[in-house]
Amino acid sequence: MTVSEHARALRAEIEKHNYQYYVLDAPLLSDAEYDRLFRELQALEAEHPQLVSSDSPTQRVGAAPLPEFVAVAHATPMLSLNNAFADAEVAAFDRRVHEGLALDEGVDEADYSAEPKFDGLAVSLTYENGILVRGATRGDGSTGEDVTVNLRTLRSIPLRLQGSGWPTLLEVRGEVLLWRSDFEKLNSRQREQGEKEFVNPRNAAAGSLRQLDPRVTATRPLRFFAYGIGGAAGAGLPATHSALLDRLGEWGFPVAAERRRVSGLGGLLGYYAEIGQRRASLPYAIDGVVYKVDDLAAQERLGFVSRAPRFAIAHKFPAEEAVTELLDISIQVGRTGALTPVARLLPVFVGGVTVTNATLHNEDEIRRKDLRIGDRVIVRRAGDVIPEVVRALSGQRPATAREFHMPTSCPVCASHIVRNADEAVARCSGGLYCPAQRKQALLHFASRRAMDIEGLGDKLVEQLVDGAVVRTPADLYRLGLSALASLERMAEKSAGNLLAAIEQSKQTTLERFIYALGIRNVGVATARDLARHFGSLDRLLAADAGQLLQVPDVGPIVAQSICQFCSEPHNLEVIEQLRAAGVVWREGEALLPAGGTLAGKLLVLTGSLPTLTRDVAKAIIEAAGGKVSSAVSKKTDFVVAGSEAGSKLDKAQLLGVTVIDEERLLALVNTPPPAP
Ligand code: IVH
């Protein structure tokens, strides 16, 4: 055997054992034997570096840390599922499927693929010619983050597809998660090393995947399950979803052993009951089951409504509840001054985490639920949702229980509290004078989707604001090593890291900067729309309400918030200071693909188009710079109508909006639309 043959044989042997262990859950070797093989390959590759190939198991670990994550646009959007909780909602789903497919009543039952709903994070894996070339997080569904080096460390993810007959281009979708036992081990390790523990397996998995240093991810025992594909080219695929999952299994992916093909509503509900019983004994957390119409051609026919498929639904398990004591109600002051009453609870374990706080939303909510401090209360938590207090056990109310009253002045800065007659929330009128609002504004400014200053957490902001070291975001850029190092829990090394992160944040993008400003009602998506539309900050700052309203998706409330923000001299001053401190972004450059023939156009799709599915039509429009909205208004530029178009078409005609067909749409994306 030549050296190169020896290396190849070792690689195949090691990947076989990875597969046995992580995919089939049937290890053939002891850990020590596996380690011996691994070290043998490492030694061989060290001696003959020319033999190292990217799909070698040794190359799963040890890639260099990334400076930041790169955004990846998903070729087809990663959508979400509609949820059903009650059997009646599942029945309605089954009925819609029947109608959509025009199955004969009672004669034919629809066939479904029923699967566990993994409680982890969705990722996409792209294979070219059978080799893993990219892995990405779901992100907002259209754009995720490139986490290829991290995903390569998961030994349940094949670096090279097994078997044969795979498409030359294949995008596999699935879920990354942690087994419960691995989560316990990870947390006890964190504890031993004096690190923060994770609240649940899902958070631990998310945190582990979003590590800039893949060597950290490699120490976290993440697992993967495939549940579908995002696209494929260059080979025929099976006709059903369940056969597709079988095929993914043959190509080396873990697929849930609990999946099953069932028929009709009875089959669905039977599956739900069975998995519900087995839930606690599964090695990983699930929050429900997913039903998908099994026939892929039928899936295509059913299509999508807005962000979710018509051919699938998630049937969720009921939220978990527990009884505990309402110790107190305290007030939290948010970034916009909103006062939120927070329930302080006797710690209780519910839905996989220990809950000590729960939001009470606002004063009316507390009255409606008639909660008193000292009450025994029911606390509910579902999935990753914020825990809530359902109600009080008023029959068990102690004599000492007392009513809660909203304060009349801000508990933090003593400013007046105002509550508009038409609003449920009370707000502190202190603005940035209020330290609580200032802290939240700074945290927002530094947050991941804003300026992304890693290491600037709430404890630190607390000290910086309380010590009057930092008042505005611009002050962050004036911080020095000595000021930071003198703070509590701040060693010189972490101070240095923070300063580097602050320095790095100066290179940003217009949309991040706009979002970071924390303008009321301007979230990530609106910030992006504004950046695309105006291209420069000065143009945005100078825009009047009328110009703002021309931005797709910007309505009167958002426009007013922006105008209000820009009319406040203090805000403009901080912006100037930030620019003077060296915060820069590229201006003038539209983020739309060059030559987008639908740039700035708003389209509405209605009816079924002869060849394009909804989501394909949408993707085509977006690629040409256009936006798709679900309702027809005066702002709509084109309504694309297919057969059986309904009320949207009527509305378009009423408003005089141009109606086009699929052919015309396709022509438009290749040629500029006529001037109005
Ligand atoms: S199919 C078109 N199958 O649930 C939607 N999703 O709400 C395709 N999930 O982001 C999703 N288990 O992360 C599908 N067996 C399963 C799933 C599953 C968990 C997650 C997935 C997705 C979310 C949808």
UniProtKB/TrEMBL annotation:
Alphabetized SMART domains for the sequence? BRCT, HhH1, LIGANc
Residues bound to Zn(2+) are C410, C413, C434
All copies of the BRCT domain together span 593-676
- Asked if NAD is a keyword of the record, the answer is yes
EC number(s)? 6.5.1.2
User: Can you supply a Gene Ontology BP term from the record?
Assistant: DNA replication
Residues forming the catalytic site: K117 (n6-amp-lysine intermediate)
Q: Cross-referenced InterPro entries, in alphabetical order?
A: BRCT_dom, BRCT_dom_sf, DisA/LigA_HHH, DNA_ligase, DNA_ligase_AS, DNA_ligase_CS, DNAligase_adenylation, DNAligase_N
Residue sites binding NAD(+) per the record = D31, A32, E33, Y34, D35, S80, L81, E115, R138, E175, K292, K316
> Which GO CC terms are listed, alphabetically?
cytosol
Q: Which GO terms describe its molecular function?
A: DNA binding; DNA ligase (NAD+) activity; metal ion binding
* Family listed: Belongs to the NAD-dependent DNA ligase family. LigA subfamily.
Return the PANTHER family for the record: CHROMOSOME TRANSMISSION FIDELITY FACTOR 18, DNA LIGASE
State the protein's name.
DNA ligase
Q: Which organism is it from?
A: Candidatus Accumulibacter affinis
Q: Which gene encodes it?
A: ligA
